[in-house]
Specification:
DNA binding; 434 Repressor (Amino-terminal Domain); Lambda_DNA-bd_dom_sf; Transcriptional regulator; 2 domains; Cro/C1-type_HTH; 0% strand; elongated; 112 residues
């Protein structure tokens, strides 16, 4: 996870001092985290992911993309993961129907 921390910081174009400010810590404390001398707490993982729209699953496990595609994706996934499987299937069905409707509406607008 530490190498992904550095990767996020560099992708955002921030130096250690500026990135540390977002976390509310000193550059020295941040450097110790990035170099693996101090652990990165769950609190800071949440702050980083929230402040910079970083995909928490990617940040922790390396799976998926670095950034969330939408500011709503994280909230949607949290809600989805709280649903029982039957309700998840229903929500997925509803989302597919909504997507079909959106495509039809967008196609109709393109035909004007």
């Amino acid at each position: 996870m530490i190498h992904r921390l550095k990767e996020v910081r560099k992708e955002l174009g921030l130096n250690q001092t500026d990135f540390a400010k977002y976390l509310g810590i000193t550059q020295t404390a941040y450097s110790m985290i990035e170099n693996g001398n101090r652990p990165l707490s769950d609190k800071y993982v949440k702050v980083i992911c929230s402040a910079f729209h970083v995909n928490e699953k990617w940040f922790v496990t390396g799976e998926g993309g670095m950034f969330l595609d939408s500011p709503y994706e994280k909230e949607f996934m949290e809600i989805f993961n709280c649903l029982v499987p039957e309700t998840q299937r229903f929500l997925l069905l509803m989302a597919r129907e909504l997507l079909k409707t959106q495509r039809k509406l967008l196609d109709a607008d393109d035909g004007r």
